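Running low. Any example?
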Amino acid sequence: MPPLTVAVIAFVALVVVFTTVWVWQVKSKNAGMIDPVWAMSLGVVALLIAVLGQGDLHTRVIVGIGGFVWGTRLGVHLWKRNAAHPEDPRYHKFREQWAADANKKMFWFFQLQVVISMLLSLAFFVPAYRTTPPGAAWVALAAVIWVISIAGEALADHQLLMFKADPSNRGKVCRAGLWRYSRHPNYFFECVHWVAYIPLAIGVGGWIVAMLLPPVLMAWLLMKVSGVPMVEAESAKKRPGYADYMRTTSALIPWPPRHP
């Protein structure tokens, strides 16, 4: 199918998905499930683009598998973290601020995820519609970046999960493993994931510029909007040692900690 047709199908499907989740949160008063649904639905969009795209078959297979595995792993992790738990403090804060308008504003917040997902899906669209296969070296580079990003994010998630599972760590700051070198190693590897598809688009002309949008957008959202600012504001209030952690540890890129 032409890319515009596939984009319309993906857009409509995402609107239906996020509207359904919005209805669910109206009843449950818990908007936290938007996170796993976002990851899983975007993984399915990658698969949809791979199946319906008209570009090189091998490239489409790589894009479909890469996006779907990423979305499934992250979605399952977030589902386990959020399901049957109190609402994420970020969304609870929105609910309190919006008061009587919470459900209406939450609806548009959920629909904003559709727009963000469509912009991120450029990482899948551009390579999936290239007519010739990328060079073997570019495919290898894409695979290496993808593996590093998925493995790194999974490791960071696991290390934090294990830290929180130990009752003796309650109220403490996690400095285990990757968290010693970055305050948000999971966010770092999430940004790296969106870089992985760029080598697959080398040689497609001006469209390669569009491939820069997904990693830049993800980094901006995590560092300036819904990620670091909200998470750290909450952590600074709950964990006495977090201010020192912020002074000595890189915010995103893993780096040896500074001496206090």
Q: What stands out?
A: The radius of gyration is 19 Å. The chain has two domains: 1-131, 134-260. Residues 134-260 form one domain. The mean pLDDT is 93.
